[in-house]
Amino acid sequence: MTTPSFAVHIPTTDLDPEPLDPSQIVSGTPEVTGKVLAESPDGRQLRGIWQITPGVVTDVEADEMFVVLSGRATIEIEGGPTLSVGPGDCAVLREGDRTTWTVHETLRKAYAITLP
């Protein structure tokens, strides 16, 4: 990482719109916002904050570890477990996991992603 050391207050950090691809939305009108806080020089390591409002969306995951700060969701992994996450939970998703996120309450998480 080339970003200098820092600290942020995750619950109050302003996030930027990250529009979903309409094909990812299964139901509802979920909106995504986020902010990359640090990125490696090669762009493969990302650290940041991500938020999604209630609804159901699909995704194909990167190699990610995240901690939920607020909100609740159920994450169904195709051919794998169903994860229920809420405040204080840490989850790990594998690259290529096909997921369906059912967001029950606006969810905000801090994440660390490794891209291929």
Produce a short descriptive summary:
The protein has 116 residues and is an all-beta fold.
Q: Estimate the mean pLDDT confidence.
A: 96
Task: Report the portion of residues in β strands.
Answer: over 45%
Element-level helix/strand string: EEEEEEEEE
Low-confidence stretches: none
Structural class: mainly beta
Percent of residues in helices: under 10%
User: How many strands appear in the DSSP assignment?
Assistant: 9
Radius of gyration: 14 Å
Cα-to-Cα separation, first versus last residue: 16 Å
User: What is the multimeric organization of the chains shown?
Assistant: single chain
- Which word captures the global form? globular
Largest sheet features: 9 strands, antiparallel
- The DSSP helix count reads 0
Outline the structure in words.
- With 116 residues, the chain is mostly beta strands.
- It has strands at 16-17, 25-27, 32-39, 45-52, 55-60, 63-77, 82-85, 90-93, 98-114.
- Strand 3 (32-39) and strand 4 form a beta hairpin.
- The radius of gyration is 14 Å and the shape is globular.
- The relative contact order is 0.26.
